[in-house]
Amino acid sequence: MKRLWVSAFLLVLLLFLCILGSYTASASSSSLNSQLNRLKSEIHQGNTATALAISQNLQRQWETEHHRLCTFMSHDDLGPVGETLSQLPALIRNGEKGLVESNCDRVCALLEQLAEGETLTLDNLL
Predict the structure, then answer these.
(1) Distance CA 77, CA 116 (A)
(2) 57 phi, psi to nearest 5 deg
(3) Which of 5, 36, 43, 56 is least enclosed by beta carbons within 10 angstroms?
(4) Cα dihedral across residues 30, 103, 41, 64: positive or negative
(5) For residue 86, with 0-12 CB atoms within 10 Å meaning exposed, 13-18 middle and 19 or more buried, which class applies?
(6) pLDDT in tens, 65-102
(7) 0.85 cut: is pTM over it?
């Protein structure tokens, strides 16, 4: 009977961790996506100083989120997001508006993919 209780406890713990991972990925993705959209609008308006500050803030925010997300996701899945975000300040300084926008779109797509991968669906569980 003890094994049954331990199994039930482990099942509840596993479900809790899955829900927590899904919530964390979704919250991180939406927070970073809103900052990326703000960065794109500043680039469109020609505010490079504000865009540079936002991109540097994004890097700091990503470092914080990365530590949380590493608990639930593979480091290999998170690597491309950090690499792309690290390029943004240099691209802004060089005036590469098109590349900044495309990198923002790439990061948004990667974040959505990460959040989708953590949702509790039958495909993700199996």
Answers:
(1) 12
(2) -65, -40
(3) 5
(4) positive
(5) middle
(6) 998 888 888 888 889 999 999 999 999 999 889 999 99
(7) no
Q: Please, are residues 22 and 29 in contact by the beta-carbon 8 Å criterion?
A: no
- Please report the DSSP string for the chain in residue order: -HHHHHHHHHHHHHHHHHHHHHHHHHHHHHHHHHHHHHHHHHHHHT-HHHHHHHHHHHHHHHHHHHHHHTTTS-HHHHHHHHHHHHHHHHHHHTT-HHHHHHHHHHHHHHHHHHHHHHS--HHHH-
d(CA 96, CA 27): 29
Rounded to a whole number of angstroms, the distance between the first and last alpha carbons of the chain is 28
**% of the chain beyond a pLDDT of 90:** 57
